[in-house]
Amino acid sequence: MKITSIETFTDAFVCFVRLTTEDGATGWGQVAPYCADITAQVLHRQVAPHVLGLPCDGLAEIDAAMDLVRDREHKFPGAYLRRAMGGVDTAIWDLLGRRQGLPVCALIGGTPGSVRAYGSSMKRDITPADEAARMARLRDDHGFDAFKFRIGAEVGRDTDEWPGRTEEIVPTMRRALGDDVALLVDANSCYSPARAIEVGRMLQDHGISHYEEPCPYWEFDQTKQVTDALEIDVTGGEQDCMMANWKGMIDRRIVDVPQPDICYLGGIARTLRVCRMAEAAGLPITPHAANLSMVTLFTMHLLRAIPNAGKYLEFSIEGADYYPWQYGLFTSDPYEIRDGQAVVTDAPGWGVDPAPEWLARSHYQVSTHPG
Which residues form the domain of 323? Predict the structure, then answer.
């Protein structure tokens, strides 16, 4: 079936995409969050003209459509184009799942079921004691047995959020949560290689198992120095949206655990390419999914389908005080953590619909096939 219309429903943070084919079938997807209103413009001007009228009957057709957009818009190789492509890709998968009565995970080789989640903190403006207490409550209430917290300062050039915070928060977390809880950290591109290695050895001494983006993420050679120097898993890749970068990252083993973001990379089909590259190299995939828009749902389905799924699903623990825009998005809540697990249901497609109240408040645009 050919694509006949692409609609977007947008605010500054979220853009839902509804795709319709010539037989009247529809599916819902989403572009990457943050500045989603800009991405919606890119979708209508630089993606929709190339995919309207194309068939969308399976992975091969989706791959071909995304490559066509890449080729036709070769002057624009960056993030916004890929973010917009992901809105179309994810809507197609939902449409196919609804048409076949299957969840997306089943369409890409998996089965419904549970996924172990780690509670992911985005906060740096929180004391180590308060962060530890927050995570202990979540452990007791929802059964999380893994957590990620922030160290350093975001792209901090070797500075901390405040002096001594990193050296305080790491042992504080271990003492508060005990040895049975897996602890992960994210440095958000903070460190030079020498400082990253110094911090990494301290992390190893406290049993931290995951060291994310220790160096500026675009400096592959710097990250490689850290990966080679430490026993801890060095992870990264959420920002990367170019396949050549992914091939180089995996071939050179820049990180131990690649972390593609389905929305940043351009959708499920393109993420599956990265997963296959990593599988061939013997590397696990632990995707980036930093909020409770549809990206976490996409990631849950992916992890239920790929053979090299990593240990965890990233699951945001931030409430309305931090991410007010991620609430009220859906007709039913697809996210519930029980015993530290999230569940992919057998509902067709992604298994959710955007809330009508949210759609009514959004900015609407549509692109249609002239035929």
Answer: 106-344
Please answer whether residues 77 and 20 qualify as being in contact, where contact means their C-beta atoms are separated by less than 8 angstroms.
no
- Are both 97 and 110 inside the same structural domain? no
Element housing 16 (H / E): strand 15-21
Condensed to tens digits (0 to 9), the pLDDT of residues 207-236 reads 999 999 999 999 999 999 999 999 999 999
Instruction: Indicate whether 349 belongs to any domain.
Output: no
- DSSP H helical segments within the chain, as ranges? 36-42, 48-51, 59-72, 79-100, 104-107, 128-142, 165-177, 193-205, 220-229, 243-251, 262-265, 268-280, 294-303, 356-361
- 355 vs 358: CA distance, rounded Å: 5
pTM as predicted: 0.97
Give the three-class secondary structure for 343.
strand
44 and 125 fall within a common domain: no
Asked if residues 264 and 236 have their Cβ atoms less than 8 Å apart, the reply is no
- The model's pLDDT over 289-318, given as tens digits with 9 standing for 90+, comes to 999 999 999 999 999 999 999 999 999 999
Query: For residues 84 and 265, is the Cβ–Cβ distance under 8 A?
Result: no
**CA contacts within 13 A on the Cβ side of 360:** 4
Q: Are residues 142 and 74 in the same domain?
A: no
Number of domains composing the chain: 2
Name the residue among 13, 93, 99 with its Cα closest to residue 61.
Answer: 93
